[in-house]
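Raw record, unedited: UDP-3-O-(3-hydroxymyristoyl)glucosamine N-acyltransferase
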Amino acid sequence: MRPHFLLSDLANQLNAKLQGDGNMIITSIAPLQSAQKNQITFLTSKPYKKYLSDSQAAAIILTESDLPFCNTSALVVKDPYLAYALLSKIMDTTPAPAENIEPQAVISPTARLGKNVCIGANTVIESGVVLEDGVVIGAGCFIGKNVHIGSGTRLWANVSIYHDVEIGERCLVQSGAVIGSDGFGYANNKGKWVKIAQLGSIKIGHEVEIGASTSIDRGTLGDTIIGNGVIIDNQCQIAHNVTIGDYTAIAGGVVMAGSLKIGRYCQIGGASVINGHMEIADKVVITGMAMVMRPITEPGIYSSGIPLQSNKAWRKTAALVMQIDSMNKRLKSLKRKIDRQSITD
């Protein structure tokens, strides 16, 4: 059964100005165009403003400038999207990954567990592990030797954390993530690959979120470092000895090569590929499907790749690209002729 909230209570928790009936019961959040009785919604962008006057929602989160167009109760805030984010946490009904220590969990007698730790069935906790207060480990996880997990951190089912990894407080790791796997390091001996032992580890800061099926490799020598407040989407690959600065956001499918250093407050678009052994400055935005082959030294927005076209247009573009070298040579030859003609004149 969903919890019920008084609209006035939600206004207080969101520090919003209440317009309308504060005794109204709110049961859930819904999109603006489909919200019904006892549901709350929000307006954050102009294309959805056309639904505002006809909305059947019990209440709408919006700005002061949009209030005159609202025909129902409202919560007036400066940033409706931020208010929606906070509201979603207040009304969240997601169950915990685990609710107690299940008897099917295998826990080393040398592991140290803080207060209110929960561990799901079939999870393995190896020797020397430290789980601080309030840590929640879902079913089927593997926590390797000497791992340290800070207070309030939650792991969903089937997460694997290799030995010696350090994870900070209030982090969230989604199912299938692998943290501390070997980096891709090999030497070539007459055509045969010789594996390089990965002797470093991983240090993850506080309030970091790691998406489902994302892999973060341990350092070869030294550590892979993920700063405070970093958010990483699903199915990303973070190679050995990468450093990611505080509060950087990384969308799904991003691939990072080894020894890359990314600054603070960056945003990396989905499916981007970033070369290793270089640095990216603070406050850089890289749009989706970019290929980053050189360092970025200044904040700003960077893009690469060709946007989607019809197949017919794309074939013409591809044909032109294939001729660029020839066209460049012809232009240089023409310039030399013009320069010689100018001299004789």
